[in-house]
Amino acid sequence: MIRFFKLCSLLIAISVAAAAQNYDEAKVPAYVLPDPLVTALQKRISSQVEWENSRRTELLTLFADHVYGAIRNDYDSLSIRPVLVNEHAMNGRAKLKIVEVAVFKSGKSVRLELVLFIPKHVAAPPPVFLLLNNRDKNNTDPTRVVKSGFWPAEMLIDSGYAVAAFQVSDAAPDNKDTYHTGVLQLYPQMLIQPNGMKAIGAWAWAARRIMDYFERDAEVNAKKVCIVGHSRGGKAALWAGAQDQRFAMVVSNCSGNTGAALARRKFGETIRRINEQFPHWFCENYKKYNDNEQAVPVDQHMLLSLVAPRLLYVTSASKDLWADPTGTYLSLKNAAPVYALYGIKSTLPEKLPSPGSALHQSRMGYHNREGEHNLTAWDWRNFVVFAGIHLKGVDRNKTDRQQKLTRTLYE
Ligand code: GTR
Predict the structure, then answer these.
(1) What is the pLDDT of residues 372-392, one digit of tens each?
(2) In a domain, 380, yes or no
(3) Number of folded domains that form the chain
(4) What are 111-126's pLDDT values in tens digits?
């Protein structure tokens, strides 16, 4: 009986908490977004030089101190150990490499296992799509017995791209009790600092170490790496892509709150909800902003603007209201002034594109997939089409198969 009452009160607590989330556009509070082009000292930024020399760094520091935690990239050494090489993967269409990237600091180490397929029909080292895998390992099965829309490796290979993935849990387990057992062992002071990085910071750190690896692998084009993340992985991909200008293209798929979506709209997931449910994702300072979105010195359009002038592709799914498609789209639109500093015009229409439509024309791309919160083959095909248009040196008509894929998308 006591158990029954406990269960009832738990269910009530859950439904009260769920009811507190807003899904009604009419109830979005009035808000003013901080301006990416006005510094903390109220100086207006009007050139690329001013942006790069002052405001960009200022914004990175604000995101580090208040949201994702401090950025660290110092380590003693990085070693690469081939775990497996198969020259005839995917029926001879690709070379498979599994490598262990080990990073050492002060006698501690972190080991990241990278799965990498490289197409055989492309002469020059190809661009790479790198997925931060926050789901089960079998989504990136190197044996290809399991094939998943979450990482449709064959389609990417046939389109002339290398395709890679690592498990974010290698960097930090997605668990409030054990998140500190990976990367944070290298930087133990993070655990006591109010701006110490936690799991999302560690995942972004790991993506940057994989970038260090790509720079050492002559079989891929490290100047054309597209980092991709879905949902919590999308938050980390954005944070890595914002920090590290070596990533040529950044893809945020359904990343939602503290990803691409504007926090000040308080639509769907809120800062309080995310901090309470996932206390191990962001720095301790971020908890100060529970129910206090308007006080955060940044909003997520500023994170997107840190990708400028590189390629940025953001997605939503029509039924994924928790991740606020409208707030995600507005966030992208509000990053446009920083792209404009580089002479890049946004061609994004005023209103959220209808479900099923994709905008590939400008360097800030967007699509609103029909359906639920997920990363699917449809999403990936759009990433490939977008990369084919904008990532220089990639001939989007290279293979017949690629042309067919592009046609299928638009027909
Ligand atoms: C949800 C979380 C979101 C998003 C999602 C996911 O529970 O509230 O912020 O990250 O998980 O990763 O699929």
Answers:
(1) 999 999 999 999 999 999 996
(2) yes
(3) 1
(4) 999 999 999 999 999 9
